[in-house]
Amino acid sequence: MTAAPPLLDTALMLATHGIPPLPLRAGKVPFGNCPDCTGNACGGRPNMKTPGPCRCPGVCHAWAAATTDPGVLTSPAWATAWRRASAVAYHPGGAGVTVVDLDDLAAVQWARATLPATRTVPTTRGEHWIYRGSMRSVNAVRPGVDIKSLMAYARWLGSGTGTTSSLPDAVRALAVKDPTTVRRAPQSLTAPLRGHGGECRHRTPAYLDRGIAMAVQRIADASIAVHATVYCTFLAVLSTHGRCGCLTDTHVNRLFTAAQAKGETPRHCTDAWTNALTTLGL
Known about the structure:
Layout: H1 6-16, E1 21-25, E2 29-30, H2 70-73, H3 76-84, E3 87-90, E4 97-102, H4 105-114, E5 119-122, E6 127-132, E7 138-142, E8 145-148, E9 154-155, E10 165-166, H5 169-174, H6 205-220, H7 226-241, H8 249-261, H9 266-280
């Protein structure tokens, strides 16, 4: 009988404690999707809040592959990955925790002066501060600081020391990069295009309304991968209309209403919109 890879033993230990693990390959990155899931061809995750993407038995969809099911972790489909793996990661949000990843000494010193004490785990260059509670994940909330929780993974580097504290408002506030977002301040459709001078073509009511109508229809027509479609649609709208301030709350509410009609929750809509803003640097 072939002995289990040492990393698999660690993964099974985590699973017994309700922490969903996954293998990482060299470079601290997840394994790529299988051919059937490449390019999200399988439809992706039906529920973005829980581990487990589609019904693919392979180690697919990065953080969403994380699972506490020992039958999956020890399955033949995962065996090759464990033999090739260089580290074990876990899905913090799936375990109900948030990791504040402090990447260097300066970040650690900032956290010690700013954040409530909690369980800490040493890393190669800094520390992981682990809080009880989940939130959206955001990179580079300040120099050397990332937040890893929902829809993210973190390396397992041991259980650390100290007592795990509840997720404080100070950490949640780090995820709000810019309080001035498209949703908060309805813009006048008669103002000039910021930074370019002259009139913004998006401020032609017919052009803007047609774009929003097409986006709403795209969401309404989605039959699979609804969440991915909603995110991609939000991204497309913001890439075209997000930088000149021509979107108003009315436009955004039309998009959110269309998404919720397809079964998305208000939280899913907000997360998808925020992620799109972050991706575009808005």
